[in-house]
């Protein structure tokens, strides 16, 4: 009996269960992408075997706490973490058995007190009566200026308690729920028909939610306590670290000001005007496009990229390009400007070997008309469009943008007096002289301020993303030169340029934030900005604490790579209005930065793991360096895991405030949990003695593949879920993911062979 209880409480069983849970969760998302949510729930998430795994894991956690009693001061974090897991399991069980949820749809003037629970196929699963009735008095839909795109919607309702007959009025809108009698009402969606409007409210009663959130908070606190405990233990063991002693002897660095001077010089060079005075005047003209007011410079850059697939067509200033199209439409319509897309689509259109075609060639192409008709028909039938049909849809959108330019409908600089939401007007005469006169004339009501215009143009011209990775490449070069050399000059120069690159990233994010009037965290491009920023931020803090040159080296590698990909990949880099679920909530500014910084820290660990295996291959006798790298990798994984679970927690809080549920088995949610479990498996396996230094490095590289799957794979491989960071244009993301995986596999096999050779050599000796 004692032996059985010991096994149930063992670290070995914990590792096995964590691995089985993450495998089960991964399987669930694959099933969902192929067969739907209900099938995934039946076969995995709510199946007897998966619930049994969770129950066994809860037993393992509870017994592990009991087995280690009495707890000393070094065990406080351990107890908090494992107690939090029991709270989360308990809250999840309460939610599973006690949660009530559904939707209530009301046309204006209607009253109802019943919610309906439906499946993904629309069939009614259950009906629940509320202890109160809901009457929709008015539904208000707001749109972004000049568009029909919703910026927000709200319901003015009247709540009547069925027991007391007391009545009160309230408003419900996205991310602003209403609580009454233990129920929460959320603005979900809306319907419009024949001039009438209806609201769709999600209603939920979840007694387990507060228990789960308490568990999340306790988990984060417990992991922080464990972290500080580990740090204290490490300080006791290694109180005289060589890096610290060297830092104390070296005196203060004088290299940062030099880096700043270089940075300012690059900034000044980038900000220099690239065009003549007339173009410079035109680029400052405010126009309305895509739901916001912007300088013509910004619109021109977006139009050129949309139509041609290039950020600067033939190297020309985008403002000059677009104004040339505006002022000479016949020449623009006959020029091969429009990007076709894939070679398969070009062949289907009879335009083989062509990458671009003229507007007239494409608009008059009968094959394109047939393809777009087929795509529209499949869209009406709610069938996915793939291959040439999907490409034809994209090409049609590019042609529509070009048509607006050719018809001089795209440049709208004249606000409608007294109606800030109305679509701006086009001047009666669209000429260079008329637009320049308008730009030089008095400021129109509704225009952004001159400071706002100049700030956005400066952001466009400087291109802080490109500057930052160039500066980071300098930091990387200096780090490589300083590796293994005595003295600290090159190391401090490298750190100075790292600060410079991080400063440029921060400036770019701040400028984008001001231009869009929101935190830049709503699409893939912006999330990659935060990924690189998190790398730089953590590296600056880590170097300040540890004075470890390895931190600068691997940060420069990762940050430069991320920013270079952000700059060079065909990603939509422009500022767009955001969906209502992202607006009016602080969780966008909380959740996204936390989760991206978590990815950043784990990405730094990825670089360290590759460096460690690289040393195993090329410098097999560098045992001390490998040991230091392995220790640094451990800290990266630990801190990254804390940030990752904090990101999952804040995401759950956001989901609860938006949709009334903290967990919905969305693939993005599930894979975030899979990633956390993967790193927890490594950390537990290390303490269980399953993994040595080389095994930890290999496992961390494999674990980071779950981060890639969370970030990219859910959207581009599974293609399911409510989270979407798409916008990669025609980039073959899946193909590149496969190539990277194959390269990683080859590298790991090479490292394994080198490791085995070293082990055999040591055994012979």
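-> sequence recovered:
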């Amino acid at each position: 009996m004692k032996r059985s209880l010991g096994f149930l409480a063992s670290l070995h069983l914990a590792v096995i269960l964590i691995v089985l849970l993450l495998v089960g969760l991964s399987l669930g998302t694959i099933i969902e992408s192929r067969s739907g949510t209900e099938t995934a729930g039946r076969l995995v998430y709510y199946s007897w075997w998966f619930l049994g795994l969770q129950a066994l894991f809860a037993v393992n956690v509870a017994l592990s706490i009991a087995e280690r009693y009495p707890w000393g001061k070094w065990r406080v974090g351990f107890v908090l973490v494992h107690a939090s897991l029991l709270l989360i399991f308990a809250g999840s069980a309460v939610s599973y058995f006690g949660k009530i949820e559904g939707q209530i749809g009301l046309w204006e003037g209607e009253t109802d007190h019943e919610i309906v629970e439906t499946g993904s196929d629309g069939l009614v699963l259950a009906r629940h009566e509320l202890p109160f009735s809901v009457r929709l008095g008015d539904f208000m839909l707001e749109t972004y200026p000049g568009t029909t795109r919703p910026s927000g919607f709200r319901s003015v309702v009247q709540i009547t308690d069925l027991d007391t007959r007391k009545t009160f009025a309230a408003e419900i809108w996205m991310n602003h729920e209403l609580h009454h009698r233990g129920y929460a009402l959320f603005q979900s969606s809306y319907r419009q028909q024949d001039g009438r409007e209806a609201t769709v409210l999600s209603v939920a009663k979840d007694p387990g939610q507060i228990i789960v959130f308490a568990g999340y908070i306790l988990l984060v606190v417990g992991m922080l306590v464990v972290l500080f405990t580990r740090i204290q233990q490490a300080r006791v063991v290694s109180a005289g670290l060589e890096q610290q002693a060297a830092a104390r002897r070296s005196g203060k660095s004088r290299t940062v000001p030099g880096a700043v001077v270089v940075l300012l010089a690059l900034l000044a060079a980038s900000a220099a005007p690239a065009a003549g005075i007339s173009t410079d005047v035109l680029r400052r003209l405010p126009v309305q496009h895509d739901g916001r007011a912007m300088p013509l410079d910004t619109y021109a850059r977006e139009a050129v990229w949309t139509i041609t697939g290039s950020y600067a067509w033939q190297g020309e200033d985008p403002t000059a390009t677009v104004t040339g199209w505006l002022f000479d439409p016949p020449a623009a319509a006959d020029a091969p400007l429009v990007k076709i897309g894939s070679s398969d689509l070009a062949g289907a259109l009879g335009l083989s070997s062509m990458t671009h075609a003229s507007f007239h060639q494409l608009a008059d192409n009968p094959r394109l008309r047939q393809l777009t008709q087929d795509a529209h028909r499949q869209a009406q039938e709610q069938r996915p469009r793939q291959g040439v049909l999907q490409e034809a849809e994209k090409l049609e959108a590019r042609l529509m943008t070009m048509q607006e330019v050719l018809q001089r409908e795209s440049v709208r600089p004249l606000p409608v007096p007294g109606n800030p939401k109305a679509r701006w007007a086009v001047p009666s005469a669209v000429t260079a002289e008329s637009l320049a006169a308008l730009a030089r004339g008095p400021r129109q009501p509704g225009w952004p301020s001159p400071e706002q215009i100049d700030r956005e143009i400066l952001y466009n011209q400087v291109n802080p993303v490109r500057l930052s990775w160039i500066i980071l490449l300098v930091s990387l070069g200096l780090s490589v030169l300083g590796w293994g050399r005595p003295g600290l000059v090159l190391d401090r120069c490298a750190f100075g340029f790292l600060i410079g690159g991080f400063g440029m990233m921060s400036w770019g994010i701040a400028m984008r934030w001001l231009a869009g009037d929101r935190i830049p965290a709503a699409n893939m491009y912006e999330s990659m900005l935060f990924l690189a920023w998190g790398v730089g931020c953590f590296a600056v803090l880590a170097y300040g604490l540890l004075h470890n040159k390895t931190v600068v080296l691997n940060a420069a590698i990762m940050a430069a790579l991320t920013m270079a990909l952000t700059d060079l990949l065909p990603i939509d880099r422009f500022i767009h209005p955001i969906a209502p679920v992202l607006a009016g909530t602080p969780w966008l500014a909380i959740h996204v930065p936390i989760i991206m910084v978590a990815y950043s820290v784990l990405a730094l660990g990825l670089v360290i793991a590759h460096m460690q295996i690289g040393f195993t291959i090329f410098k097999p006798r560098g045992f001390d360096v490998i040991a230091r790298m392995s220790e640094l990798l451990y800290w990266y994984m630990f801190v990254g895991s804390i940030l990752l679970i904090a990101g999952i927690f804040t995401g759950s809080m956001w989901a609860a405030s938006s949709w009334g549920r903290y967990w919905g088995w969305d693939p993005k949610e599930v894979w975030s949990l899979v990633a956390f479990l993967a790193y927890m498996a490594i950390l537990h396996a290390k303490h269980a003695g399953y993994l040595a230094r080389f095994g930890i490095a290999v496992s961390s590289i494999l674990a980071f593949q779950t981060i890639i799957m969370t970030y990219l794979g859910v959207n581009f491989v599974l293609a399911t879920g409510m989270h979407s960071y798409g916008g990669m244009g025609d980039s073959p993301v899946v193909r590149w993911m496969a190539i990277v995986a194959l390269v990683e596999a080859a590298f790991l096999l090479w490292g394994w062979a080198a490791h085995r050779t070293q082990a055999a050599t040591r055994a012979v000796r």
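Residues 349 and 365 are 7 Å apart (CA to CA).
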